[in-house]
């Protein structure tokens, strides 16, 4: 019996050991190999999840806490750099599941949708492996430091709404990584961690492409449904309680990821307005 791409993605989503999850994601087909791939685009896998009570696999560690509970550490110390690398590895492990979740949860989409998110899952697994290996050179393992679950909480909120998922995970939470990567890279470089900085360079390059994929499919759905992308985004952000995006923004990377000038102007204006309101209050 042939195992479809979407069935494989669901199986990866269920794996608990990080190394197993990353290895299975790296084994997903590359875009060039999709000619003979059975995607299984019309399989009702979400219904199977509900019927069988399947749950996402996650390791016992790290301990999950509220973001505000995470201690601040200086990257000038080995412990501080290790905590930072562990936090980035946690994001990338969650990103494997986010890509696989898009693959298996949402049916009936064009083949290119599944081909592109398969690529994303493969690349997120590479990022996790690089960060996990680097963390070991700092004397730690993934799971040694507590982490938060904000990225996956948004995935849970949008599990029944593909448009909202695309708007608020790749185009919002993952796009924040485009803004955060340059200052994090600079901190690592200034602390003498050239290897960590090089990993951040690769991640930023790939994440521009991942956010671009999210932008493409978000606009595709907006066009199909006759929706204005900017107004729809504002409505979805409010409905699903998306975090307010704060500058400074990496506008160059956001442009490369497919945000148009109207969206960027709205983003900058919203940040300025919120900042003014905070100062006035």
Account of the protein in words:
The chain has 281 residues and is mostly helical. Helices cover 67% and strands 0% of the residues. The protein has 11 helices and no strands. The protein has helices spanning 5-14, 18-26, 45-52, 78-105, 111-137, 150-157, 162-190, 194-225, 229-239, 251-256, 261-280.
Summary keywords:
281 residues; mainly alpha
Which percent bin holds the helix content?
Answer: 55-70%
Number of helices: 11
Instruction: Report the biggest beta sheet as strand number plus sense, adding barrel if it closes.
Output: none
Structural class: mainly alpha
Describe the structure concisely.
The chain is mainly α and 281 residues long.
How would the blueprint of this fold be written?
Elements: H1 5-14, H2 18-26, H3 45-52, H4 78-105, H5 111-137, H6 150-157, H7 162-190, H8 194-225, H9 229-239, H10 251-256, H11 261-280
Helix pairs in contact: 1-2, 1-4, 2-5, 4-5, 5-8, 6-7, 7-8
């Amino acid at each position: 019996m042939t195992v479809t791409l979407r069935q494989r993605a669901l199986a990866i989503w269920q794996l608990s050991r990080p190394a197993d999850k990353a290895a299975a994601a790296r084994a997903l087909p590359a875009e060039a190999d999709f000619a003979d791939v059975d995607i299984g685009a019309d399989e009702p896998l979400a219904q199977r999840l509900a019927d069988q009570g399947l749950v996402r696999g996650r390791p016992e560690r790290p301990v999950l806490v509220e973001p505000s509970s995470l201690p601040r550490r200086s990257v000038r110390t080995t412990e501080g750099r290790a905590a930072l690398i562990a936090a980035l590895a946690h994001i990338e492990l969650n990103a494997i599941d986010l890509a696989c979740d898009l693959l298996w949860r949402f049916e009936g989409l064009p083949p290119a949708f599944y081909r592109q998110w398969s690529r994303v899952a493969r690349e997120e697994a590479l990022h996790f492996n690089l960060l996990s290996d680097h963390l070991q050179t700092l004397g730690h393992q993934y799971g040694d430091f507590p982490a938060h679950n904000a990225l996956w909480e948004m995935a849970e909120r949008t599990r029944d709404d593909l448009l909202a998922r695309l708007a608020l995970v790749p185009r919002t939470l993952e796009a924040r990584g485009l803004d955060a990567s340059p200052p994090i890279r600079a901190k690592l470089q200034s602390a003498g961690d050239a290897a960590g900085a090089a990993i951040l360079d690769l991640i930023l390059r790939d994440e521009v492409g991942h956010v671009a994929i999210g932008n493409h499919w978000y606009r595709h759905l907006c066009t199909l449904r006759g929706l204005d992308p900017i107004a729809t985004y504002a409505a979805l952000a409010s409905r699903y309680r998306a975090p307010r995006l704060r500058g400074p923004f990496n506008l160059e990377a956001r442009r490369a990821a497919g945000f148009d000038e109207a969206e960027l102007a709205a983003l900058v204006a919203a940040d300025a307005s919120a900042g003014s309101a905070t100062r006035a209050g």
